[in-house]
Amino acid sequence: MSVPSDHLALYFQWEVRTWARAYPLWRQTLQRVPGRAGQALALGERDGGLSLMLAEHGLTTVCSDLRGPTDRARELHRTLGWQKAITYESIDALAIPRPNASYDVVAFKSMLGALSTPERQAQALQEMHRVLKPGGVLLWAENLTATRAHRWLRHRFVAWEHYWRYLSLPQDLTLFAPFEQVEVRTTGLLANLGRTEGQRDLLGRIDAILCPITPRSWHTVAFGVALKGSR
User: pLDDT of 106-144, one tens digit each?
Assistant: First the structure.
C-alpha cells in the first residue's frame, strides 16, 4: 500500500521527514494484521494522526489522549471519510480501561517522555502489553536524549523540558521487557533544530546522509515494533 506524501504529513504532523522514517517498518507490520477484523488503540493522539494511519490500514481504531483528542482530530477523520472507523476517548496510558487482550495493534508517538519517570514509562508499556492480544504488536516512536548540544538547547528553549524524560539507548530498552521481541531503529540529528517545518524538512534531508554514519547515541528519535508473545 503506497501512501501519498501529504498523508505522511497527516500521520506524523511535525518534523515529518524524521518521524515518517518509522512508516515503512510500521506499514510492513500492519500488512500482517488481519484486515478489517483488526482492532487498534492509538494513545497520546491529540490531533489524531496515527489513528488516521491505522484506519487507512483497515483497523477499527480508538483515538485517545489523556484529556481526549482535539476537535482537529475529529475534523481530520471526518474530512477524509474515516469517522465510522474511529471512536474517541480520554484514556490514561497508565491505566487503560480495557480487558486483557483487547487489541491487535497499539500505537503511540512522542508520548512516553511526558510520563516523566522510568517507573511510569514502564507501567504504561506494561498496560499496552496487557491490552494487546497474543501475537499483537506495538508500533512506537519516541524522543531520545541525543547529544549534549541537543540537551543544552532543550534546556534553554523547550518549555516542557523540566518534566519530559527522553529515552536513552540501550539502557531504556529494559522498559520493553514485557514484550517477546523488540525491533529498534534510530534517526534524526539536525532536523529538530529547525524553527519551521520547512527548515526541519531540509535538515531532515541532510540527516538522511548523516544518520547512517553517526553514532546511534547522537540521534533524536527511536522507533520500532514490539511483539507480544503468542501465549
Answer: 999 999 999 999 999 999 999 999 999 999 999 999 999
Is residue 141 within 8 Å of residue 19, measured between CB atoms? yes
Instruction: Give me the domains of the chain, ranges plus CATH numbers.
Output: 5-227 (3.40.50.150)
| pLDDT tens string 38-65 | 999 999 999 999 999 999 999 999 999 9
Distance in angstroms (rounded) separating the CA atoms of residues 211 and 218 = 9
Cβ contact 49:10 at 8 Å: yes
Q: Measured between alpha carbons, how far is 138 from 29 in angstroms, rounded to an integer?
A: 10
Helices (H) and strands (E) in the chain, counts: 8, 7
Q: Write out the DSSP string of 109-160.
A: ES-GGGG-SHHHHHHHHHHHHHHEEEEEEEEEEEEB---HHHHHHHHHH-TT
